[in-house]
Amino acid sequence: MQHARTENASTVQSIVERWREEEGPLLPILNGIQQELGYVPRESVPVIAEALNLSRAEVYGVVSFYHDYREKPAGRHVLKVCRAEACQSVGGDAVAERLEQLLGIRFHETSADGAVTLEPVYCLGLCACAPSAMLDGEVIGRIDDEKAVDIARRARA
């Protein structure tokens, strides 16, 4: 565990150094950390804050505001289920509940085996094909019970 923290700290420091002199560096730094590590470790917040002369609250506020930033590593698969009105209006709530049931987790959780993280998203731009989801970047529209079962099987693989 200590080795991973040291490695993470080195990665964070490298990304901070790369972007700190650019205009508006906070989001590129957070994006770089998220891309490299798969999440933004809580211990990186004070490092970023100090480098950019911001308060820890300001940095944490940005991390917690944007839904794509994670504070913990995601599962091997990430399933994002649309929770917007268009999807809700054609059965999205039932699909979301069914996926939670099939995966045995709730939104904002990762399965105990680390296989899948379930996240809400508020529009995938597939309103005409609602209800929809995205599994590891692949969009899936017109989800019915059969597709939900298939999505859960793929996410558990």
From TrEMBL:
<feature type="binding site">
    <location>
        <position position="87"/>
    </location>
    <ligand>
        <name>[2Fe-2S] cluster</name>
    </ligand>
</feature>
<dbReference type="InterPro" id="IPR002023">
    <property type="entry name" value="NuoE-like"/>
</dbReference>
<protein>
    <submittedName>
        <fullName>Formate dehydrogenase subunit gamma</fullName>
        <ecNumber>1.2.1.2</ecNumber>
    </submittedName>
</protein>
<keyword id="KW-0560">Oxidoreductase</keyword>
<feature type="binding site">
    <location>
        <position position="127"/>
    </location>
    <ligand>
        <name>[2Fe-2S] cluster</name>
    </ligand>
</feature>
<keyword id="KW-0001">2Fe-2S</keyword>
<dbReference type="InterPro" id="IPR036249">
    <property type="entry name" value="Thioredoxin-like_sf"/>
</dbReference>
<dbReference type="InterPro" id="IPR041921">
    <property type="entry name" value="NuoE_N"/>
</dbReference>
<dbReference type="GO" id="GO:0016491">
    <property type="term" value="F:oxidoreductase activity"/>
</dbReference>
<keyword id="KW-0408">Iron</keyword>
<dbReference type="GO" id="GO:0051537">
    <property type="term" value="F:2 iron, 2 sulfur cluster binding"/>
</dbReference>
<keyword id="KW-0411">Iron-sulfur</keyword>
<dbReference type="InterPro" id="IPR028431">
    <property type="entry name" value="NADP_DH_HndA-like"/>
</dbReference>
<dbReference type="Pfam" id="PF01257">
    <property type="entry name" value="2Fe-2S_thioredx"/>
</dbReference>
<feature type="binding site">
    <location>
        <position position="123"/>
    </location>
    <ligand>
        <name>[2Fe-2S] cluster</name>
    </ligand>
</feature>
<keyword id="KW-0479">Metal-binding</keyword>
<feature type="binding site">
    <location>
        <position position="82"/>
    </location>
    <ligand>
        <name>[2Fe-2S] cluster</name>
    </ligand>
</feature>
<dbReference type="GO" id="GO:0046872">
    <property type="term" value="F:metal ion binding"/>
</dbReference>
<comment type="similarity">
    <text>Belongs to the complex I 24 kDa subunit family.</text>
</comment>
